[in-house]
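Work Package 3 (structural annotation) set out to generate three-dimensional models for the target panel prioritized at the project kickoff. During this period the team completed the workflow that converts sequence records into C-alpha cells, so that structures can be stored uniformly alongside our sequence database. As a representative example, we reproduce one entry of 82 residues exactly as it appears in the project archive.
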Amino acid sequence: MAVTIGKVQYVKVGDDFGFVEIRHQGSTEVELFIIWFFTSGPGGPIGFWTLQLMLALARNLTVEITHGDQSAFIEQVKLRAA
C-alpha cells in the first residue's frame, strides 16, 4: 500500500469517472489518481472522497491519498489539518 501526500490541483468528475491531480508535498511533481471509473457514479465512500477532495481544492488543504502499489485507484482519502 502506498501513500501520497500533497495539494489538490484539480478534480474532474463525469457520469462514469472521477479523477484528481495531486501536487506532491514539497515538490513540483504531480500525479493523477482515479477516484472511480465506469460505475453509475459516486456513492458511499467514493462520494465522500469526492467531496473531501473538492473541499481540499477550495480551501488549499493538504490531503493524504492511499492507493495500491503501482496503482492509480484511490483506496482512502484523508484531509490534513490546515
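The mean pLDDT is 90.
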